[in-house]
Amino acid sequence: MAPADEPTTLFKQDGNFSPNYSFMTQAAEVEVDLITGQVKLLRMVTAHDCGQPINPMLVEGQLEGSVVGGMGQALYEDVIVQKGQMMNPSFLDYGFPTFLEMPEIEAIEVETDDPIGPYGAKEAGEGTQLSPAPAIVNAIYDAIGVDFMELPITPEKILDALEAKKKRE
């Protein structure tokens, strides 16, 4: 190996890849049309431990963006593959939320002091991408008494689940 190709630093450490952890919680309020199966996300509340936010407006935008991303995963985004071919390869065919579907979003920045992060800050937005879908699934369960194990929760899936529930009762 030529000297220029040799690594200058080796990182050999086992263990934790994250210098800190953020905690978050979310709650969703939905309305489910029992005739069409359409879900309307009315309101999302997201609370996120972001350490000391360096730019609070940016953190709020990150939290709101994460809610929208999770909303898309829960209700709209579906990659359809048949015989190895993607059937919805463009934005014309791939479902995602638009401005018209946006719920009221309450973003709460929970400030803590992180001794490792710059100026006490932690990540702001990455962690909150994980929790909107479970919050929406739980809100749908509270609304109609049917639990879903597969995303997205489409109107067709809701109508099928309601029909199956009716047959069981």
Kindly list the characteristics that best describe this protein:
169 residues; alpha+beta; Aldehyde Oxidoreductase, domain 4; two-stranded antiparallel ribbon
Determine and state the CATH class: Alpha Beta
Say how many strands there are: 5
Briefly note the structural class of the backbone.
alpha+beta
N-to-C SSE string, H for helix and E for strand: EEHEEEHH
Are there runs of 5+ residues with pLDDT below 50, and where? none
Query: What is the count of helical runs?
Result: 3
The shape, in one word, is globular
CATH level 3 topology: Aldehyde Oxidoreductase, domain 4
Binned, the helix content reads 25-40%
- Share of residues in strands: 15-25%
Mind summarizing the main beta sheet? 3 strands, mixed
Can you give the mean pLDDT? 89
Strand order, largest beta sheet: 1-2-5
Distance between the termini: 72 Å
Could you give me the name of the CATH homologous superfamily?
Aldehyde oxidase/xanthine dehydrogenase, molybdopterin binding domain
Total domain units: 1
Backbone CA Rg: 21 Å
Provide a descriptive summary of the structure in words:
This protein has 169 residues and is α+β, with helices and mostly antiparallel strands. The chain has one domain (24-162): Aldehyde oxidase/xanthine dehydrogenase, molybdopterin binding domain (Aldehyde Oxidoreductase, domain 4, 2-Layer Sandwich), CATH 3.30.365. 28% of the residues lie in helices and 20% in strands. The chain has three helices and five strands, in the order ββαβββαα. It has a three-stranded mixed β-sheet with strand order 1-2-5. The protein has a two-stranded antiparallel ribbon with strand order 3-4. Helix 1 (56-75) packs across helix 2. The model has no long low-confidence stretch (mean pLDDT 89).
